[in-house]
Specification:
The protein is built from eight helices and seven strands; from the N terminus they run H-H-E-E-H-H-H-E-E-E-H-H-E-E-H. With 272 residues, it is an alpha+beta fold. It is a multi-pass membrane protein.
Length: 272
């Protein structure tokens, strides 16, 4: 857009930071006039400008509080790097399909509003990836012209990769067989390499070596909510069963709270 080219250098750097992966903004996918766009909530952009990652950047305007962050984001919004949108229902028949987006004419920045990106960020990675893809394709087409040593090295490399993939499948099958055996012999069962399919690094996938198949513990938050619910039920039950009641007392002019100590009154015996 022309407005983005007219933006000051510091505003462009802020937009590049927010669009990059180091900002940590939670980006969602929406549909605007049939075209998919990334959008985010204003609150996440404010947090990004107050994060330590922003402070490590050089040449960016300083931000110390939320008011300064929102003012800076208002400046980025003024040059149409992102525009305020209204989120509607799903664009498809499924509830998980992208939400419909509609641009709002009155542009302003607010932490509870949604904003769609109209800025793709730095394009050097896209250009570099395209050049690398073309180079790989040319190298594959010219494979018959390679020297015999290079072709032999590629053959050994391909055999090694196929061997690693086959070893992975063998480990997966063996661990499943061992798990089924241990369910019968030593319940509740033992998993070899329990993190083999977890979203961790290559080395962490093989640590620890084995682990019992124990059920996962409930989180503390759920247990706290359960305890609070039980306390509320007990208090309701005690109030209904014991016949407790609350007596309204007229307020006095004294601002200090009255003492809550018990008071005993002498009552004449009616049988006397």
């Amino acid at each position: 857009m022309e407005q983005q080219l007219k933006a000051p250098q510091d505003i462009q750097k802020v937009a590049q930071f927010l669009r990059g992966g180091s900002a940590g903004i939670k980006v969602r996918v929406g549909a605007l006039n049939g075209k998919r766009l990334d959008y985010f909530k204003g609150k996440s952009a404010t947090k990004a400008l107050l994060s330590p990652a922003y402070k490590k950047q050089k040449g960016l305007p300083p931000v110390t509080n939320e008011a300064e962050a929102q003012a800076l984001l208002q400046g980025v919004n003024a040059f149409a790097f992102f525009l305020r949108v209204q989120r509607g229902g799903p664009s498809g028949s499924s509830s998980s399909s992208p939400k419909n987006l509609q641009i709002i004419q009155e542009q302003m920045f607010g932490p509870d509003e949604y904003y769609a990106w109209f800025y793709e960020g730095s394009q050097w990675t896209t250009y570099a990836g395209g050049i690398l893809m073309v180079a790989i394709m040319l190298a594959g087409v010219m494979f018959p012209l390679w020297p015999p040593i290079m072709r032999l090295g590629v053959w050994y490399l391909s055999i090694g990769m196929l061997g690693l993939i086959g070893l992975f499948f063998v480990i997966a099958i063996l661990r499943l067989i061992f798990y089924v055996i241990t369910i019968v012999v030593a319940s509740p069962g033992i998993w070899i390499f329990p993190k083999l399919f977890a979203d961790v690094g290559f080395v962490e996938s093989f640590i620890p070596l084995w682990e019992w198949d124990l059920p996962k513990k409930k989180s503390k938050k759920k247990s706290e909510k359960g305890e609070k619910g039980e306390k509320k039920e007990k208090s309701k039950g005690s109030s209904n069963g014991a016949g407790a009641y609350i007596e309204e007392v007229e307020e006095s002019g004294d601002s200090r709270p009255h003492s809550r100590s018990a008071r005993i009154e002498e009552v004449e015996d009616e049988d006397a």
